[in-house]
Amino acid sequence: MERYNVIVIGAGSGGLVVAAGAAGLGARVALVEKHKMGGDCLNYGCVPSKALLRAAKAAQEAREAHRFGVRGVADPGPQDAKTVMDWVRACQAKIAPHDSVERFTGLGVEVFLGAGRLRNSHEVEVDGKTLWGRHVVIATGSRAFIPETPGLKEAGFLTNETVFDVETLPGHLVVFGGGPIGCELGQAFRRLGSKVTILSSREHVVPKEDPDVAAVLAKRLRAEGIEILDKAKADRVELRDGKKIVHVAGRELACDAILVSAGRRAVVDGLGLDAAGVAHDGRGVTIDANCRTNVPNVWAVGDVAGPFQFTHWAGHQARVVIQNILFPVKAKFDADNLPWTTFTDPEIAHVGLNESEAKRRDVEHVVVSSDFGHNDRAICDGTDADHFAKVIATPKGKILGATIVHPHAGDLLAELVLAKKHGISLSKLSGTIHAYPTLSEIGRALGDAYRRTTLTPGTKARLTKVYAWLRR
User: Please, are residues 301 and 284 in contact by the beta-carbon 8 Å criterion?
Assistant: First the structure.
């Protein structure tokens, strides 16, 4: 049988990084993919959703142009879903060559299109052909979790894998789930012209964020006409007179489409994990901080292993695996400094501990915040005054976590991620020159806010006496 240094099962973001990186360092690599190159990110996730969000934002910008004194721009009304999805597919087509079989073959990777299954810890079977690998990397991703709601399957529903095939704008879209995917796509369809209802089973939307953060987003979504039902789960679904009827909280919601965004589940079916002795559970493949499974030569990255389900996390884990497979100095993944962004408008960007977690863990901390209502560039941009940034820090100013709520929060977070990772204190951010007028000044404002917390009444009283003495 053919022998390889590395066999990668799954050509999503994590698998592609492993394959390209290992081949670039001279290893012989086999890449196995049973469906589409590029995985969820290119085909059903990050790329199409962000293209859709941009189209929806363009419609909203036209709708709100009057805020800036611009005349002659009318409400564009409901959009043609097919035309918008053509834009989405065009964006995918521009990016697809980067993830293509041809590119990876050119990099020296041997690509096998078919379902891969472990026969043992070193052997992978692909459509009857057996490959041997010194190391095997599992990168099979995740799929949408479908709740066992009575009548849901019979009525029909959309997931992130099918929503981008929509060619007729739903008159009323009901979203099961108030997490990032549900809020992002719900807002997009509302801006394109659909009536949207979000069923959030938790206390508030984006439940991993602090309540004050979620409140800003919920306020915006409701202002745009989205109905949000908190602590609500559908009891059942039925078809009636050509409509899908969702029974929830004693109400009947008649809708044209249901989008299920109630979480993700790791794809482990048919991988032969038990045959190879690889430990796994309902959350996916079990790994340690080195991304190694309980079988020494088998590794796993990305959604199939977690503990997070982000493209950039999969890429980070992939680099950890390359280091551990091909070099003697071992690496561990860095969960403490993982940033994530919910790409609603406003965006919510986050790294490290939030305020709720710090309280729950009884971590000694201070909270410093600054709102964009005092940022001159944000004022000129017309940004809502209730957008803000806050940092959770030690009393000495070491950053433990940060959250930003702003239309460009994902970009603005990078400075705080860098500062947190490398121990740069809030005081040093205060002393760093930021260009004016830019949104990045929020970093300096947070540093200034922290410095003000160190000025106790007693210290100020003593300084007042000193300054009085100097005026003699």
Answer: no
Q: Which residues pair with 125 in a beta bridge?
A: 117, 130
Taking the C-alpha atoms of residue 14 and residue 302, their distance in angstroms, rounded to an integer, is 6
Alpha-carbon distance 414 to 32, whole Å? 34
From CA 412, how far away is CA 440, in angstroms rounded?
A: 6
Say what the pTM is: 0.94
Q: Rounded mean pLDDT of 42-52?
A: 95
The per-type count for the chain, helices as H runs and strands as E runs, is 17, 23
Is the peptide bond preceding residue 180 cis, with omega within 30 degrees of 0?
no
Q: Tell me the per-residue pLDDT of 329-369, one tens digit each, with 9 for 90 and over.
A: 899 999 999 999 999 999 999 999 999 999 999 999 999 99
Residue 137 has pLDDT above 90, yes or no: yes
Q: What is the pLDDT of residues 200-246, one digit of tens each?
A: 999 999 999 999 999 999 999 999 999 999 999 999 999 999 899 99
Q: How far apart are CA 176 and CA 144, in angstroms?
A: 12
Does residue 211 have a cis peptide bond before it, meaning omega lies within 30 degrees of 0? no
| Confidence at residue 459, expressed as pLDDT on a 0 to 100 scale | 82
Asked whether the beta carbons of 448 and 430 are under 8 A apart, the reply is yes
Q: CA dihedral in degrees (380, 346, 231, 234; nearest 10)?
A: 130
Average pLDDT, the chain: 96
Both tokens of residue 313?
């996390």
Tell me the H-state helices in 69-151: 81-95, 101-106
Residue 414 is encoded by which pair of tokens?
């990078």
**Cβ pair 142, 266 in contact under 8 A:** yes
Kindly tell me if the per-residue pLDDT of 73 is higher than 90.
no
Distance CA 92, CA 184 (A): 18
> Is the CB of residue 376 less than 8 Å from the CB of residue 437?
yes
Give the torsion through C-alpha atoms of 161, 164, 170, 173, to 10 deg: 40
Q: Is 306 helix (H, G, I), strand (E, B) or coil?
A: coil
Question: Where do the DSSP E strands lie in 107-218?
Answer: 110-113, 116-118, 123-126, 129-138, 142-144, 172-176, 195-200
In three-state form (DSSP H/G/I as H, E/B as E, the rest C), the secondary structure along 423-460 is CCCHHHHHCCCCCCCCCCHHHHHHHHHHHHHHCCHHHH
